[in-house]
Amino acid sequence: MDLVNRFISDRRGATVIAFGLSVVPLLGLAGAAVDYGRATSVKAELQRAADATAIHLATMSLQGRQQDAQEVFAGLLLQTGVDVPEFTATASLVGTHRVRVDASAAIPMTLASFLVPQVDVGVTATAAANQRTTPFEIERANLSVEAADYNELRIYCFHEDRRERLGVIHSESGLREDGFLKIADNTNEGVAAAPETISVECGPGESLSYHLINIRNARTSAAARRTNARWDHYTDTTMRGGVAQYNTEYRDLIETIRCRTAEECDPDHPDSIVPGNAQRNRTPARNTEVCNPGEYMYFGWEDRPPYIGQWTDQDYDDIRVVMRCGGEELGPMNVVLVD
């Protein structure tokens, strides 16, 4: 009992014990500081790899190609020399050739591992790519009121590889339409409207396409347009050898004629090469040549095309427009980080 009391009352080792106990948290704090510095450094390298991945994928998007984000990110991260055993990278298209990359990694702790085994970090990068092209210009609406049906014409961009219908890009602002853009109708008001030039573009891998809305016996009645039978015709245009292919569901829906000058596409001009109104029961002309930037393309639609099994006059003048051709690249690609 006396031995125990003497041990309890002896203070000579208290300082050593207190120091030993204080060393543990001090070492933990020091280790945490070192590991935090390492985690910060690794995060910076992850950000660089994410930035480079976003730029690479945005460039691929502009070229109409795709590549796996994880594969690209892994290769770029390897170039930094940083050893990160576990990481993930995903990419998403958040606009016209605008790519967002999200990457995350688990960074194992070393000196402070007994306090925090690992730290999870995440980074984000967004890059946008663009390349200006000569615009397509809808020169004027040259509409016929001979039809009894209501006809409305819209334009859009069709991406063949993705089988996707997209809004056109306005040349002046560079902004893409949320949906299809109406360019003409054959109401009295539509025909009387002053001619207007609309300049639009499509992105790489996309082709300017047309959507014809036909509502039977409704040209002069807004009420009938809400109730009468409706037909939707899409061209889903693709390019073959520089020549537009209009992939409509029904044959002989569109007449296409290439004009070297605007006068050749004007039915009222002496130099016109396009048919006049009410030339019925004929086979439509089909352009098979490249429409070079600066030349013109005439489009005439038959709103009740053959092969549907209903009456048709096959005059191809129910709604007509003229387009100035474009699509030629104007300079190098521009790819920038935007976030």
Walk me through the topology.
Elements: H1 2-9, H2 14-62, H3 69-80, E1 86-95, E2 98-108, E3 118-130, E4 136-141, E5 150-159, E6 164-166, E7 169-170, E8 181-185, H4 188-192, E9 198-201, E10 206-215, H5 222-227, E11 230-234, E12 238-240, E13 243-245, E14 254-259, E15 296-301, E16 319-324, E17 334-337
Antiparallel strand pairs: 1-2, 2-3, 3-17, 4-9, 4-16, 5-6, 5-8, 5-10, 7-9, 10-11, 12-13, 14-15, 15-16
Protein name: Putative Flp pilus-assembly TadG-like N-terminal domain-containing protein
Pfam family, one: Tad
Organism: Salinarimonas ramus
What would a concise description of this structure say?
The protein has 339 residues and is an alpha+beta fold. It has helices spanning 2-9, 14-62, 69-80, 188-192, 222-227; strands at residues 86-95, 98-108, 118-130, 136-141, 150-159, 164-166, 169-170, 181-185, 198-201, 206-215, 230-234, 238-240, 243-245, 254-259, 296-301, 319-324, 334-337.
Which outline best applies? elongated
Low-confidence stretches: none
| Count of all domains | 2
Helix content range of the residues, please?
10-25%
Domain Putative Flp pilus-assembly TadG-like N-terminal: 13-54
Region (Disordered): 264-287
Organism: Salinarimonas ramus
Protein name: Putative Flp pilus-assembly TadG-like N-terminal domain-containing protein
